[in-house]
């Protein structure tokens, strides 16, 4: 099987003139990523192009003023001569930067400038000016592409099966962009059992497409070609009404990355609390003032796993730290704790949630001086006025971090999960899970009832996690490509236990809470390997009213903040009144901004200044999301929790049904009717129950449905004030007069005496004054066929201004299903008159419904012009 690689020769212009590069000589360092992608396509599928050496840009940027004009003139002369030699008869042209670092990760970072061969020097100068002005493009050693430009294109767009969009390489997502209002994204799914297009027939002739449906077919050809090469590629294309041209192709290559399942979670508790001088284990009496301590007390009370947490709350020691002094007792305790990786956190007494979130904390510390310096710095900093205390624990290694949202009386628990540390959930894509515990009441919450709970998992493609490196520093690490679509929480029992613990916590505090969980921790903390770490109240209404500007499509370009320098550049970009920024994406690779709330505030303020929307792949339950919302910025999450499942009924139900549904965990909305409105629903219910009785399969079903019928009749009697005995008396009166329904007599037909005497007299059962009651043999199926017969009729009317064709169906209500084909004449009318006005109406009479189809064709009135 061939693979995806460059196989076309490329016209290459260097200082020595025109060269012809062979595929094996084409390297990204010489021609750039964009050119490398174009050279990997069938030659007839893209527009003619040549590549200019990076020496052009390099020599241009090295000089200034008049010297730049000299560089331009020299290279333009060289390029024009090469184009003529190669017989590239360009008219409209596009100059495109082809950075050596360009690829999927840098899409949109480089520039393309259009022009003509007559204005070639100015076009190159404009491209250089854009590159030089853009601080985001650090690399100025950039090859350039000169390519024919399809100016009169009807549509342009994208086609991709990148891993981040498509789990399976045979599934593609495509998008129209350009001359349409808005965007139109659609899927192309390659399946061998479906109709296929011959790829080979397009290799030599080009991607011919005369119509828009033909365009879609051609895009499928491109997808099949790439799939045959086992490639994942992001294509950009243009269509001129006759041909589709691929103008960019970026391969999504396999990235080895880290194995998230290889995180070592073994831990040995190396100290005893009795060895400590000043730090105290779990001083629960302080919990009422400090939320993090209070949380630990709650987990302990509920029987949930907790890790040893040591607290420095001694006021004298804290005062000395504020003065820059660490006591000998404190240093003694720190020396014990740093035998393993030590983490120090803060807790404050503030009631304001935004001040309690994202408080400073250390990475893993293994150095006493580093620990002391951090404690002194925090004691003297901005949090000194909030009565801080310090929490100490050895780093708890876990394979997975999760945030869970639970609320009192709410049966569904929402969970976000990602490998590594919780900081990864702030900014990176992850799995979203909904667990329905099937009950609102605390009494029914137990492990014994978990089997009936449902778990719904919605996976996203995951690229990054935060995990400790070899020095115990918490850093962003890129996952291996093969783990991108891996499910994070694979054990439903563990997922359900997280949901159970989350509900117990929310019921205990009687508030909606977001809870941080560690999963896959060492068994020293508990057999299940799960541990709640922290919880806080969560304002669901704030997240619901986030005010999105518009929905982001998968191919949108955005500015990504990865480091503090990116934030500086963002501010410069926003300051430009001509900026076209619409999306700001936060994807930090700089550890210093992972938890920095000031950075989040800055990004939020820049978003407000330019009206851009912040695009967040991180969790809705994370601190970062909440902090961004607090800035007032519009925040779009890449993939939020699925919307609540809604079922519309609008029908009368038994009195206790709404309460039962509510107690099982669903929200219930009901209306209460009285008088004639209530009577309407009762009659409707009687018809419904009668139909269910009609469909009963056995005695048990029949008894149940008869009971329902009687219950509805009781309801009607009570509503109208009717005594049920009056109904029984009327029943008896009718039975005395015309009998009941005990003999099984089914009236087939009637006839006059004159016709009756012609029948076979041997079948007469009784004579009475010359008339007869005749019992004949009959089968149920024959009678049903006659009673439930669907009839079709057709007609035509011609009026002064229109001609109307009619097609009428009469169908019985008790018919389970039926199929009718329209008369050929009616179909002919529609086919020959695409402008016909169609009207469909229906009317019920008794137990039959008549459906009427009308096709009216306007009749053109003759004009005097018709006779001239």
Keywords:
868 residues, alpha+beta, 6-stranded mixed beta sheet
Share of helix among residues? 25-40%
Give the overall form: flat
What is the averaged pLDDT score? 81
What composes the largest sheet? 6 strands, mixed
SS element count, helices: 24
**How many β-strand stretches?**
34
Strand order of the largest sheet: 2-1-3-6-4-5
What is the C-alpha radius of gyration, as a whole number of Å?
38 Å
Low-confidence stretches: 102-109, 545-550, 755-770, 861-868
Helix-and-strand structural type: alpha+beta
What does this structure look like?
The chain has 868 residues and is of the alpha+beta class. The chain has 24 helices and 34 strands. The strands form eight sheets. Strands 2-1-3-6-4-5 form a six-stranded mixed sheet, with helices on both faces. β29 and β30 (771-774) form a beta hairpin. The longest helix has 22 residues, at 699-720. It is flat and about 115 Å long. The chain starts with 9 loop residues before the first strand and ends in a 10-residue tail after the last strand.
